[in-house]
């Protein structure tokens, strides 16, 4: 690798670190945040709003990067992300935090999409496994630094400060990208697909509103209307894109391979957000560990992610995508099966081992599927193809976060109902121990653990479907 490419990799790693630190710190701190704001029931909105706006912006960034170059579009996204982060740090209540997380998500849509597109642009297939492994190593570093830094800030100052740590990394990533990633200036006039963008954005918002309204027990008539209008808008979007000069989502990128890869990506991403959110809740609210210890206990997932990403990425041309995807999804199946044995007194070592297995499965899957998406698409549409895959992943996380929250909250209520304790409000769950003489700390932990097991069963079913679909892949990358 020459010095120019090495500098670009470093710039991309710093950009990825921005998003990685945000993920590890917020996931670790979220139980503290919702407890402080007394909004346990709204925990999923903190994630879902971020994922919603990220999903909306993803295809837009992908297409703009195809039209105007990767570098400047990525830097604009980072700036929006930093503004959102700063405002999140100033939040005084849960509603402000949710709103500013939405702004943060608008910027985040550029980071993961364009970063991987740049890798596909400048590196050969034989190099990409190694490079993606290097970029994935950022998650391991963030997993080690994030919990320590986040725990220190929470304990010494307040959770507000966990959002401010993004700012110096964001500024550094912009400087490195502008200095090292040089692209030819594109002066030709391009026509932006504004109508397609508006229709797609509206359909995504309505879809996720429908999912979230189920969780929040909003009138089901409005929920069904939102789903119906979403379906109608997607049909309209299809015909608009077929006629558009520069479609925001060119439908010719959806080959048979592309469709299968996107379905598997959707399922894997759904299980990933479930593991991230609910393992953290288990560590803090069931086993009683601090945010710092809980975050460090999740670090093995990132470490095994790096190892699997690097090793399996290098073996892709030898074994092909089918065998390696089957192997990776089998690891997820094993890992989620093991989560079902966790209880209120499980040793921390078991969580570390199980998260390590899951990390290997995720690392192998996402590396292979990203490379496959890029290889199945022409270079001039690689940004749109990568963005579409990122959109699928983000939608999966946003939708599944709401659905898992529904299962989690309803299971907790069901647990207390079975004990004869009625009218439980999960939004004030933390106050039950002090205000309700029937609820001991052990009962509280067992209710959380019961809800977690229901979520883990749902995730296990999803991973089984993912495993079966992996057998439908071909081996087009074998021997290339």
How would you concisely characterize the structure shown here?
This protein folds into two domains: 3-193 and 245-470, Growth Hormone, Chain: A (Up-down Bundle), CATH 1.20.1250.20; 194-244, no CATH class. The protein is 79% helix and 0% strand.
Succession of helices and strands: HHHHHHHHHHHHHHHH
- Radius of gyration equals 22 Å
Give a short account of the largest sheet. none
The CATH superfamily of the largest domain appears as MFS general substrate transporter like domains
**Estimated structural class:** mainly alpha
Kindly report the average pLDDT value.
78
Gross CATH architecture of the largest domain? Up-down Bundle
Count of strand segments? 0
Q: If helices are DSSP runs of H or I spanning 4 or more residues, what is the number of helices?
A: 16
* Relative strand content: under 5%
User: In the CATH hierarchy, what is the class of the largest domain?
Assistant: Mainly Alpha
How helix-rich are the residues, as a percent range?
over 70%
């Amino acid at each position: 690798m020459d010095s120019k490419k090495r500098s670009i990799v470093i710039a991309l790693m710093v950009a990825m670190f921005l998003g990685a630190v945000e993920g590890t710190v917020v996931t670790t701190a979220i139980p503290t945040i919702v407890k402080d704001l007394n909004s346990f029931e709204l925990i999923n909105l903190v994630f879902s709003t971020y994922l919603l706006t990220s999903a909306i912006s993803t295809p837009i960034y992908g297409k703009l990067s195809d039209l105007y170059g990767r570098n400047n579009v990525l830097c604009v996204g980072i700036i929006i992300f930093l503004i959102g982060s700063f405002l999140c740090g100033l939040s005084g209540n849960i509603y402000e935090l949710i709103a500013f997380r939405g702004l943060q998500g608008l910027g985040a849509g550029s980071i993961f999409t364009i970063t991987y597109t740049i890798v596909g642009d400048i590196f050969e297939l034989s190099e990409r496994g190694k490079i993606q492994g290097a970029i994935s190593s950022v998650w391991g570093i963030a997993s080690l630094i994030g919990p320590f830094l986040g725990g220190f800030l929470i304990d010494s100052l307040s959770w507000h400060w966990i959002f401010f740590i993004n700012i110096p990394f964001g500024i550094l990533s912009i400087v490195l990208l502008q200095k090292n990633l040089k692209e030819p200036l594109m002066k030709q006039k391009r026509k932006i697909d504004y109508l397609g963008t508006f229709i797609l954005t509206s359909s995504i918002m309505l879809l996720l509103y429908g999912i979230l309204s189920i969780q929040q027990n909003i009138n089901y008539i409005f929920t069904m209307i939102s789903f119906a209008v979403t379906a109608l808008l997607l049909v309209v979007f299809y015909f608009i894109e077929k006629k558009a000069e520069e479609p925001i989502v060119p439908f010719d990128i959806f080959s048979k391979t592309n469709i299968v890869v996107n379905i598997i990506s959707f399922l894997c991403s759904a299980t990933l957000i479930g593991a991230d959110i609910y393992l953290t809740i288990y560590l803090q609210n069931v086993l009683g560990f601090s945010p710092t210890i809980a975050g460090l206990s999740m670090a093995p997932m990132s470490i095994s992610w790096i190892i699997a990403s690097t090793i399996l990425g290098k073996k892709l041309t030898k074994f092909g995508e089918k065998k390696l995807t089957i192997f990776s999804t089998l690891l997820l199946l094993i890992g989620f099966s093991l989560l079902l044995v966790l209880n209120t007194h499980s040793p921390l070592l078991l969580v570390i081992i199980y998260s390590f297995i899951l990390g290997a499965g995720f690392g192998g899957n996402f590396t292979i599927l990203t490379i496959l998406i890029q290889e199945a698409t022409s270079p001039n549409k690689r940004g749109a193809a990568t963005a579409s895959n990122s959109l699928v992943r983000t939608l999966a996380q946003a939708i599944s976060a709401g659905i898992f929250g529904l299962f989690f909250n309803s299971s907790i209520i069901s647990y207390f109902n079975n004990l004869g304790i009625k009218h439980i409000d999960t939004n004030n769950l933390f106050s039950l121990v002090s205000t309700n003489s029937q609820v001991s700390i052990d009962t509280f932990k067992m209710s959380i653990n019961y809800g977690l097991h229901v979520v883990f069963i749902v995730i296990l079913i999803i991973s089984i479907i993912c495993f079966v679909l992996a057998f439908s892949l071909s081996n087009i990358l074998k021997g290339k």
